[in-house]
Write a structure and sequence with these properties.
single chain, 139 residues, alpha+beta, 7 strands, globular
């Protein structure tokens, strides 16, 4: 099953792309919930390159590792990845008069609750939007 999560971000396309692909910025937004954080993010951004994100609960009770391969890249327009568990994710970036629209198409994990995953991905996109719109260090 796949879901689509989108956000209109009041920031230039270059800043949005940078936030999605730069490890130090990924660590600021890639947590999925208020009681999680991302202590490690690695990105080798090219087709065939890999990524790795570690997500941890603040209390240390749970750790999740996400990794995979960049399958297709179109600079400032598209990122397609394959997670190591076989799921797929595509992220589309479109500049418009209000800033940049980001749309993610995410293949969900079949072992987890649909509603829980949907809520987490929506929260993640919302938090990404907040970080990008308030981060003065981005391009």
């Amino acid at each position: 099953m796949e879901i689509t999560v989108a956000a209109q971000i009041q920031a230039p396309l270059e800043a949005v792309w940078e936030a999605w692909t730069t490890p130090s910025v990924i660590q600021q937004w890639n947590s999925g919930a208020f009681d999680w954080f991302c202590p490690k993010a690695e990105v080798d951004l090219h087709e065939g390159g890999t990524f790795y994100y570690r997500i941890e609960r603040l209390d240390g009770s749970e750790v999740l590792d996400f990794s995979g391969v960049f399958r297709r890249l179109k600079l400032l327009r598209l990122i397609e990845i394959a997670f190591s568990d076989g799921r797929r994710l595509s992220i589309h970036f479109r500049e418009n008069s209000a800033g940049t629209e980001v749309q993610s198409n995410i293949e969900l994990c079949q072992e987890e609750c649909f509603e829980h995953q949907t809520q987490n991905y929506k929260h993640l996109m919302s938090y990404f939007k907040k970080i990008v719109e308030t981060n003065r260090l981005l391009s």
